[in-house]
Amino acid sequence: MAKATRAAFGETLIKLVDEGMDIMAVDADLCGSTTTAKFGAAYPDRLFDVGIAEQNMIGVASGLALTGRTVFTGSFAVFGTGRCWEQIRNTVCDSGLNVKICPTHAGITVGADGATHQALEDIALMRVLPGMRVLVPADYASAVAAIRLAAATPGPFYVRLGREPLPEVYDEGFTCDVAFANVLREGSDISIMACGVEVAQALAAADVLAAEGISAEVVDVMSVKPLDEETIIASAAKTGRVLTVEEHSIYGGMGSAVAELLGEKRPVPVTRLGLTTFGQSGDAAELLAYYGLDAAGIAARVREVLGK
């Protein structure tokens, strides 16, 4: 059943506390959207809503972390990373605090809220920070795994969550480690490396291409920082061409991280598929199609790259 990655947030925090972890959450007047409201209903003394004040959200989270708690923050991605970037940099990352930045509504699949609410720069903002780990789950099960991993691993994390229900990619109980990439489909002609929303789209594109005689390998690059260098390099070496696909700007995102790695350690042609503009208001599926980020758009770009 399709479920949004944000749906994993509040539910997983409840389970972590049930299991004995000292978890706190701080939100910025978006508890219903981020699903921390569920956590607050179960543990009202563990959720703080600071209002529309993301800078304060990070300050409060940092203070709680200094008392020994593991602290998660909410909000929308465009505000939960952009509005409070300096506080994340100077307070959370410089001190290596145990604060997990887990906003929702990232990417153009926010839909009708439009460009002001569609975070397309958040991965770049977070991966540039020393000490920050960046995870972009592809479905509900991997979002649960990412939140659990962040909770169990000391120090700053960014977990990118979304609004739209996504198809199942992983089974319930899926687990991962820091620096995780996973070959979901073997191929020989090109490696499609995707993250988040685009993983299911890449798998669908590979099905379309297979019917045309094109063998596409699909790799879920869930951990954008640190990268699973071994898996990425092995796939690139095997197919000799890489197409990265992300619901994010092509500047500084997952595609940039992969291109930087391969440029240094295993040079192959790399094409980045993502956005170079702000988004716009519309239905999520229509926006993916408009920007060439649905299965048809990915398949079309693969044909272009391969000259077919």
Automatic annotation (TrEMBL):
Its cofactor is thiamine diphosphate. It comes from the Bacteria. GO terms for molecular function: magnesium ion binding; transferase activity. Pfam families: Transket_pyr, Transketolase_C. Residues 3-169 form the Transketolase-like pyrimidine-binding domain. CDD domains: TPP_PYR_DXS_TK_like (cd07033). The keyword Transferase applies. Keywords: Thiamine pyrophosphate, Transferase. The keyword Transferase applies. PANTHER family: PYRUVATE DEHYDROGENASE E1 COMPONENT, TRANSKETOLASE-LIKE PYRIMIDINE-BINDING DOMAIN-CONTAINING PROTEIN. Belongs to the transketolase family. This is Transketolase. It comes from Enorma massiliensis.
